[in-house]
Amino acid sequence: MGNVNAIGLFDSGIGGTSIWKAINELLPNENTIYLADSKNAPYGLRTKEEIVALCYKNVDFLLEQKCKIIVVACNTATTNAIKELRAKYTVPIIGIEPAIKTAANRTETQTIGILATKGTLNSELFNRQVESFININVIEQVGYGLVELIENGQIESQEMTQLLTSYLKPMIEADIDYLVLGCSHYPYLIPAIQKIIPENIKIIDSGEAVAKQTKSILENNNLLNNSHGKSTQIFYTNGNLTVLKNILGFEENVLEKEF
Question: Is-catalytic flag, 74?
C-alpha cells in the first residue's frame, strides 16, 4: 500500500471531524477520506450487533478507496466494535476512547465527570476502564439528544443550552474538577459548556491523543506520506451536506453519498 494513500476516518455523523481536525493539524501532508454516517446517527442508541455491522460497512467503503489506515473517530463504535474490526481486517485500525485515565490521574477532588452516549457508557470496554480507578468517583451522564442537535446544526440553540445545563449541574454539585467528553461530537459544544461550568473545571477530549497515536502507527509501519504535493481532503456524508460544510468551514471536496 502506497504512502500517498489516504488516512480513512469514519463516525456516526459529523462529530468525528473534531478528530479529523486534530489529525490534519498534526499531519498536514497526509491525504484523508472522511465518512459521515449521519443517516444512522447516533450509534449510541443502537445495539452492539447493529454498531458492529455499521462499522464493517464503513470500513469496507474506506478500504475500497485504498485507505492505508482506519481511524474509528467515534467513541461508541470504538468501545463496541474495535475488537471485531481488528479481528476482521489487516489494515491498522485506531480507536478513540474517553480520556478517563488522564482525568483520573490529574483530579484533585477525586471526582470526575463524563458526558457520553449510552452506547459508550454501557460498553464492556468503558466499564472495565472505569473499574480500574477504584478511588475515583466517576459521575456518568448520557448526553441524550446532543448528537441529534449537533447533526441538525443547532449547537447554539436554546434547547442545547437547556440540555447541557441539566446534564452538567449534578456534576458541578458533585465537585468534579475534570469533565471528560466521551463522544467525538461533543468538542463542538465546548464553548457552550464553558458558559455553564466554573472555570476550575477542565475539559478533556481525545482529539490530540488520537492524532499522536495515528502519527506513531504510520511511522512504525513506514506509512507516512513523504511526498511534497498538496494533500487532498475528501468528505462523504449520507446526511445534511450544509451542516457538514458549516462545521468544516469550507465546501471543497464535501460530497453527498448514499451508503
Answer: yes
String of DSSP letters for 95-143: -----HHHHHHH-SSSEEEEEE-HHHHTSHHHHHHHHT-TTSEEEEEE-
183 is catalytic: yes
Rounded Cα–Cα distance for residues 128 and 124 (Å): 6
- CA–CA separation, 85 vs 83, rounded Å? 6
Q: 100-134 b/e with 16+ CB inside 10 Å = b?
A: bebbbeebeeebbbbbbbbbbbbbebbeebbeebe
> What is the rounded distance in angstroms from the CA atom of residue 99 to the CA atom of residue 209?
9
Distance CA 163, CA 244 (A): 22
From the candidates 19, 67, 74, 218, give the one annotated as an active-site residue.
74
Query: Exposed/middle/buried for 164, CB within 10 Å: 0-12, 13-18, 19+?
Result: buried
CB contact at 8 A, 38 and 239: yes
Angle 142-148-152 from CA coordinates, rounded to 5° = 155
**Torsion over CA: 47, 148, 16, 158 (sign):** negative
One pLDDT digit (tens) per residue for the chain, 259 residues:
459 999 999 999 999 999 999 999 999 999 999 999 999 999 988 999 999 999 999 999 999 999 999 999 999 999 999 999 999 999 999 999 888 999 999 999 999 999 999 999 999 888 888 888 889 999 999 999 999 999 999 999 999 999 999 999 999 999 999 999 999 999 999 999 999 999 999 999 999 999 999 999 999 999 999 887 889 999 999 999 999 999 999 999 999 999 8
Instruction: Find the catalytic residue in 85, 94, 176, 183.
Output: 183
